[in-house]
Amino acid sequence: MKKLLLVLSLGLAVLTGCNDKGANTPPPLITDPVLPPVTEEFSPGETVTITGSGFTASDEIWLRMPTKADGDIQATIVKQTPTEITFTVPQGLPEGECTLVLKRGGTEMVLGKVAIGESVPAAAARLYGLGDHGVYEIDRQTYALTPILGDADFDFSSSNVYDASKNTIYSIEWYEEYENIPDTESKLSSGIVVKSWLGTLDLNTNTFNRVPLKDDIDYFACLIDGSLHLLAVPLTDDDHIRLYSVDPATGTQTEVIDFGSWATAFGVSSDTYDIAVYSTPCLVSGRLLMAFSLYGADSHENRFAAFDLNAKTMIPGNTIPFGSDDTEGNVCFFERQGETYTAVVSQNGTSIDSPFNTHFLTFDPENLAAGETVYTLDNAGCFDPQYDPVTDRIYWADYWEQSGTEASGDYTTGTDLYTFDFATRKAEKSFTWDEMIWTLVLAR
User: Fold this and answer.
1) Are residues 162 and 79 in the same domain?
2) How confident is the prediction along the chain (444 residues), in pLDDT tens digits per residue?
3) Would residue 3 count as lying in a domain?
4) Least C-beta-crowded within 10 Å: which of 105, 218, 221, 224?
5) What InterPro entries does the database record attribute to this sequence (predicted)?
């Protein structure tokens, strides 16, 4: 009898241990995941779609190599909904099966395996220059400019996006117009109104169409789930930042998200503070990354920020390094091989004529903070960098004016083409044009 009781007790202990273990197992991040069959191979650069229930905007997809020494490699997510997620297979992966891991915060879930095929040489991306008097296709070997749009009075900003599905570039144009308006109607200088347009450059037909947008608003273009959107930052007494979908043919805007007051998010009063936007939005893991200059009568700080598309909130980030309180600057973001980088441009001095310096840094999109400095380029700016995964390089235009005065008419203008090679960690001036090129767009 004692022996039987002992067996029963041991059995109960085993069952109890199993139940305790099950109780400590965290719930799955998603349910009903469906992956492509392992018989289907995906080459680097191709996209993979996973379906399921419960995906969130903060989810990340990582590829785990057969040997842990190879580490996990993060994939770039190109589309995400609550029921599916699509990512691009990173470059440089070996052929064979690897494990897909879904990560959310500090938790991860193994989804299954995917077959990686042979790398297929990618087609060379086309490089375009948006200039003061025209739009040009740029020869990637000789850097010769071929006009594809005639001479016109363009006012391109650095807010440009390329839509590969339509082979189209969308661009924001703006300029300041003087009008007789009271100070109370605008926070801008008396009599200045900011006019904006949305430009559509169809690269299939080399035609351009421009439609007007609302006055006194800074607009920034971005693609979300393959559709054109505008992030709108009012320059008047309205301090709410909003996201709109937009019809490129008419400029008609439909509000998608009101992110609320930037003054409230930063903990200041909009009566005593203003903001200037120093970057175009970069979509990473469901967040639009941005950079702001927040300034009041006695204070000035440059901060990273993000707009969370899932939580519909604005999130202030860390202070931007290398920034100066009383000089101009710019901040850009780009992705490379599943990692995010930022280019911080600041003036090397306190004078408006001081030269620019550029700092390339790694960036943590979760904590909105800059990391290690990858490279520092003295006496040159970097505006709207274009990353090419085929060459593993960044391309950008740095325009300039020199000699003489504008009043005397003997000043000269031009643009330097810069490249940064990640393999050599070296930046160099590759070419100089006589034309004023505001920004580059890489069509890939």
Assistant:
1) no
2) 334 333 334 444 444 444 454 556 678 899 999 999 988 999 888 889 999 999 998 899 999 977 655 678 888 888 888 999 999 888 778 888 999 999 998 899 999 999 998 876 666 789 999 988 889 999 999 999 999 988 777 788 878 999 988 999 999 988 777 665 555 444 444 567 788 999 999 999 999 999 999 999 999 999 998 899 999 999 887 899 999 999 999 999 999 999 999 999 999 988 888 888 878 899 988 899 999 888 887 778 889 999 999 899 999 999 998 765 445 678 999 988 778 999 998 877 666 667 788 999 999 999 999 999 999 998 888 888 999 988 899 999 998 887 665 555 667 889 999 999 998 999 999 999 998 998 999 998
3) no
4) 105
5) DUF4784_N, Ig_E-set
pTM more than 0.90: no
Q: Give the domain range for residue 93.
A: 37-116
Q: Please indicate, yes or no, whether residues 157 and 281 belong to a single structural domain of this protein.
A: yes
**Cβ contact 283:224 at 8 Å:** yes
User: Are 238 and 260 contacting, i.e. CB atoms less than 8 angstroms apart?
Assistant: no
Write out the two tokens for 269. Answer: 């009063």
Question: Which residues face 282 on adjacent strands?
Answer: 289
Q: How far apart are CA 214 and CA 216, in angstroms?
A: 7
Q: Please list the residues that pair with 97 across neighbouring strands.
A: 115
Look at residue 225 and give its three-state secondary structure. Answer: coil
Number of structural domains the chain divides into: 2
